[in-house]
Design goal:
Length: 463
């Protein structure tokens, strides 16, 4: 028996374990390396019909009609690479759920909106959504490498190229709108275009003097990492400052191939940020989200947003409660690297923009008394006092002047009131809630403030 680890096996599964019915060797045993690594081959050979899908993953007889009907509403597209991540033995496979039609999608087919974010209501010219003061969304492509069943922009996926004249009108709008300093180039997926076509668009955008940054939104590093080839990289790095937002949802998507694609982009100086969608049955538990975030950090991809699933038609079964999202966020802050924590947002239905939601750590705030009651990640309570403000300072200074002599301050001892965490250990604690500062002598190291100050002065290099 062969023990080849397929190219596209997720990092977490790369160690030898019970053989899974997945990977390139399982689904595409006779495809050559040359074909597999050619993004155009991957694109051409996407699974787009139920008959093709059934060759790889059996479809129960009773589900054919429902699934056929669902595909009439929203097309299917699965690259061979993305299919290779599916575990054929797992009927709840989180990869397949994102791209394959399901009975739930049929059952709930009438719920949800065509354009849940009202993108077309904020559109000065076709393809542009101008919702925020200084940045616009530009939809330049009607195709993707894979079609995600929960996609908020299902309505535009026709797979014919956006006419050049429309793209020119979008560019013109940005050129004559000096407030726009940031453009999100999206679709569809811009990286499904050939490199030349994409370059023609990027070069027009780069020629606009007031446009500071260009961002591309793409799921291609997740769904078609072969697309991130040297030719593309050479081209992209001519248009800096360029940022790319990627879209990983599940740790199984963090494969060596995806990591390589991200590494190439990062080495070209393109910062990568991830926008994940919280999806029921795919990633709606803390362990999965943590696995995703930690895996992204290892790939040097910064988690940016975690989206609440939009009220998209045909996406009802993917939606979770907001409470679920807040619970997950609560499980992250303080429990893992702050760098790994995305902002959880709900896109305002009908066009409100992204609204951050999350656990509440400010329990009470009294602006008159200048006090805040806070809780930390362990549920411990802290009181923070705000600065007293100029009026109070002036009054105090006047009192001191009246008293005559100004006494020297007492040094560090004057700072041991409860509001200052580090002086008495309030702000420091281990998971068991016990304060630890002071036990190790780490704070003062046995020196007085005066001793430390004079030591610091002595070390000043002499010119
Ligand atoms: C998400 C989005 C942006 C970018 O928002 P950021 O919070 O800056 O990432 C811009 N325009 C529209 C219409 C969007 O949906
Ligand atoms: S890749 Fe993005 S734009 Fe394309 S279908 Fe998926 S979510 Fe929608």
């Amino acid at each position: 028996m062969q023990t080849i680890v397929p190219d596209s096996v997720p990092l977490s599964l790369a160690a030898p374990s019970t053989p899974k019915k997945s990977g390139r060797a399982h689904y595409y045993p006779s495809v050559t390396d040359e074909q597999w690594n050619d993004w155009k081959w991957q694109f051409r050979n996407r699974v787009t019909t139920l008959d093709e899908l059934a060759k790889f993953l059996p479809i129960p007889a009773g589900e054919w009609d429902m699934k056929r009907s669902v595909l009439k509403d929203f097309r299917m597209g699965i690259t061979p690479y993305y299919l290779s991540l599916v575990d054929a033995d797992d009927k709840d496979d989180p990869i397949l759920k994102q791209v394959g039609p399901t009975v739930e999608e049929y059952v709930y087919r009438d719920l949800g909106e065509e354009d849940p974010l009202g993108e077309e209501n904020y559109s000065p010219v076709p393809g542009i959504t101008h919702r925020y003061p200084d940045r616009v969304l530009m939809v330049i492509s009607n195709s993707c490498a894979i079609y995600c069943r929960y996609c908020t922009r299902k309505r535009i996926m026709y797979e014919d190229a956006v006419p050049d004249i429309e793209i020119d009108r979008m560019v013109e709008y940005i050129a004559k709108t000096p407030a726009v300093r940031d453009v999100v180039v999206s679709g569809g997926d811009p990286l499904t275009y050939g490199t030349k076509k994409l370059e023609s668009i990027l070069s027009k955008l780069r020629a606009i003097p007031h446009l500071e940054i260009i961002r591309i939104g793409s799921r291609v590093p997740v769904s078609l990492p072969q697309r991130i080839d040297d030719e593309l990289i050479e081209m992209l790095q001519k248009y800096h400052p360029l940022w790319i937002n990627v879209h990983f949802n599940h740790p199984s998507e963090l494969t060596p191939d995806a990591a390589k694609a991200c590494d190439k982009l990062l080495r070209a100086g393109i910062p990568l940020n991830n926008q994940a969608v919280l999806l029921r049955g795919v990633n709606d538990d803390l362990a999965t989200i943590k696995g995703l975030l930690h895996g992204l950090m290892k790939m040097r991809v910064r988690p940016y947003y975690l989206y609440q699933c939009d009220q998209i038609r045909g996406g009802e079964h993917f939606r979770t409660s907001i409470q679920k999202g807040i619970e997950i966020m609560e499980g992250l802050r303080g429990h893992t690297s702050g760098l790994a924590i995305p902002t959880y947002v709900i896109d305002g239905p009908g066009g409100g923009g992204k609204i951050p939601v999350g656990p509440n750590y400010l329990l009470h705030y009294d602006p008159k008394k200048k006090k805040a009651i806070l809780r930390n990640f362990q549920g411990r309570i802290f009181e923070y006092s705000e600065p007293q403000g100029r009026a109070a300072l002036v009054a105090k200074a006047n009192r001191l002047t009246k008293d005559g002599e100004v006494k020297p301050t007492a040094g560090p001892k004057s700072r041991t009131n409860g509001a200052n965490g580090h002086a008495n250990g309030n702000g420091n604690g281990h998971a068991d809630g016990k304060a630890v500062v002071g036990k190790s002598g780490w704070v003062h190291r046995g020196h007085s403030r005066e001793e430390r100050l004079s030591a610091a002065t002595d070390k000043t290099p002499k010119a």
